[in-house]
Amino acid sequence: MPMGRTTNEVLVERHRDRESDDKFVELQRWSAAARHLWSRRVRVLLWTVAGALLSALLAWKICRFEATVQIMPPDSSGGGLSAMALPSLMKSPAMAGLAGMAGDLLGMKSSGALFAKVLQSRSVEDNLIDHFDLRKRYSEKYWEDARDKLQSRTTISEDKKSGILSVTVKDPDAQFAAKLAGAYVQELDRVMAQVSTSSARREREFIEQRLQEEKKVLDNAEQRFGQFASSSMALDIPQQTRVMVESAARLQGELIAARAEMDGLEQIYTPENVRVKTLRARVNELQRELDKINTGRPANDKTASDSSNLYPSVKNLPLVGLEWTNLYRNTKIHETVYELLTQQYEVARIQEAREIPTVKVLDAAVVPEKRHPRPMLVIGLGALLSALLACFGLLLQRRWEGWGEDDPRRVLISTLFRGGKDFTAM
């Protein structure tokens, strides 16, 4: 031990020398590995190029253009035929309760989940597959497989806060991705319009059938009323009653005046006098006319029937008026019902023919410019991974070759790769 140095100092110095030797050995090991890899740089380069090519093929398969269309959430307010028909129904007090019930039933609120389910329905997917011939494009024989692939390339999401729907379509062709995303909106609009039109059509068909039935009933009521009015000459009972009463009162007054004049002449002249005969004939004529108005037949003619007079008499007016009023009221009731049904039928026809803009596009699908994920990123990662694997493989090969034939590690690994028989025997 050198003079002036303690034992601790000597130990520290030896430890430092040992660490220095270990670092030197480690550095030599890494240097040898680097020289080994550099000597086989061509092989590493070939593996890197092969990895880049495989990554390029993989990128062509997995990197696709993404076209997205955003749809506004559906309106929550009720619309359609109910919104148009309810105001007219509310005008009638008798149908106000029915209108309120219809408003509660027809004014149901919808949500974006409805649109999402419609977009994922088999009807929409089959129409898209048929329109774009996706079975041929996806190289699928069966419709079910084509639907699965279409679903795998389509993402439908809903923003819970705003309710906006996003439909994203992935495809290697940017133009096709944009067209398919736009076709989703068209199919959604078609299905929703078809459902709404089907509802309006059912309402229109029901009203049309009811209108035809009511038209037959109205024609029958009008025919009965017309036949009765024609046979009884009861054209306007209130007006006829007023006119006939006035006519009877006028004839009665003229008859009284003629009789008074005749009584005066009979006191002066003989019954064979011309003036007396003339006045007596006038009195008889007035009496016959008055009897016709009151009873429908002359007082001295017992064989004449009431039908011999063209117009109903005052005596028969109450009975005729009762039947006339019933037929008239029945006709007016059916006319009112027919008029209301006609209005509702026109509303149903307008609703059926009108195109309902149920789908509102916020952002239309545009042709995407970039693939996702980026192809160069996939190729770069693939080449880097291939280079690392090649280096790791070469280092393992060098380590394998550095082991002797009798090295337990080499024997164990060789045994495992041969199926484990020798390993079991050990």
Order of helices and strands: HHEHHHHHHEEHHHHEEHHH
Strand tally, please? 5
Structural class by helix and strand composition: mainly alpha
Give the strand content: 5-15%
Helix content: over 70%
- Major sheet description: 5 strands, antiparallel
Number of helices: 15
Radius of gyration: 54 Å
Write the CATH homologous superfamily of the largest domain: FepE-like
What's the number of structural domains? 3
Give the uncertain stretches in residue-range form.
77-110, 299-308, 420-426
CATH topology of the largest domain: Bacterial polysaccharide co-polymerase-like
> What is the CATH domain class of the largest domain?
Alpha Beta
Indicate the mean pLDDT.
Answer: 75
Shape: rod-shaped
CATH architecture of the largest domain: 2-Layer Sandwich
Feature tags:
5-stranded antiparallel beta sheet; 3 domains; Bacterial polysaccharide co-polymerase-like; 426 residues; disordered C terminus
